[in-house]
Amino acid sequence: MEVGVTVGDSVERLEATAGDFAFAELSIGESAYVPAEETNSHLRTALDTVDTELCVHLPFEQVVSTRVHQLNDAIVAHLTELLDWAGTLGAQKAVLHGTMRNPHDVEQRQVFADQLSAIASAGDDAGVALVVENVGHQARGLPLSVLGDIARETETAVCFDVGHAYMEDGNDGIERFLGEYADLVSHLHVHDARGRGDTHLPIGAGEIEYELVAEPLSDFDGTVAVEVFTDDVPLLRDSAERARRHLQQGLGSSVAKE
Asked: Which residues cross the membrane (predicted)?
């Protein structure tokens, strides 16, 4: 198991926080970090300096599918370009939000599945493993069970965001999803949350029962990204150690570079 940290779209935050972790997850595209020749050099230097690997998060604002096939083609083309770029930097994984223009449009769910398959195939061609993330608490996010079913149908790996699942359906939602789809999970986003709307808190500061993650993922050997919105490295390390403990991997002497 490798433990990393999300750094938003900031290479500076990567430099400040990622040195103790196995990888940094960088948000790319649209209003986030935009790949360009003048910025790529800075990113490559930062990755070398902190001696960490790269994962990427594909654009947050762009849905995966719509009712307009020309837009769907453009979405796949755009994400293919980003995946190709990520591949040139040796990115391990790319996270994609599981979103549709209307996630309750049952007739369009097959379109989403087709889009997901095409994007995952582009990732394979680029040498970057695509993982689809649950965001069912958001207006355009597919519900947990629907996302799980489509991921299984398309043989797409899942980025299971524990906090998002809690915000969508509480601790029961975490337990149900992992009870059914734990075998699909290859990437985790870990943070804490409270039902009143607070999220991306340090683990232990909220209401999530992380013990519910331990049993279904007791043999987990994927990647874990600490997604706590702080630049306080000791807090990030503490959440990483708590996540590792709950996953029954043992604390070890250091959080990460494994």
From this structure: none
Percent above pLDDT 90 for the chain: 87
Q: Say how far residue 117 (Cα) sits from the centre of its chain.
A: 17
Extents of the domains making up the chain = 2-246
* Buried-exposed string 32-58: b where 16+ CB fall within 10 A, e elsewhere: bbebeeeeeeebeebbeebebbbbbbb
By three-state DSSP, how is residue 99 classified? strand
Which tokens belong to 123? 């990732």
CA distance 127 to 6: 21
Task: Give 61-87 as a DSSP string.
Answer: S--SB-S-HHHHHHHHHHHHHHHHHHH
Q: Which two tokens stand for residue 140?
A: 């355009």
User: What percentage of the chain exceeds 70 in pLDDT?
Assistant: 96
User: Considering the domain 2-246, what is its CATH architecture?
Assistant: Alpha-Beta Barrel (3.20)
- CA 124 from centroid of its chain's CA atoms: 17
As beta bridge partners, residue 188 has: 160, 224
Phi (first) and psi of residue 193, to 5 degrees: -155, 160
Strand partners, 153: none
Rounded CA gap, 135 and 142, in Å? 7
| Dihedral sign computed on CA atoms, order 136, 132, 79, 17 | positive
Backbone φ and ψ for 51, nearest 5 degrees, come out as: 55, 55
pTM beyond 0.85, yes or no:
yes
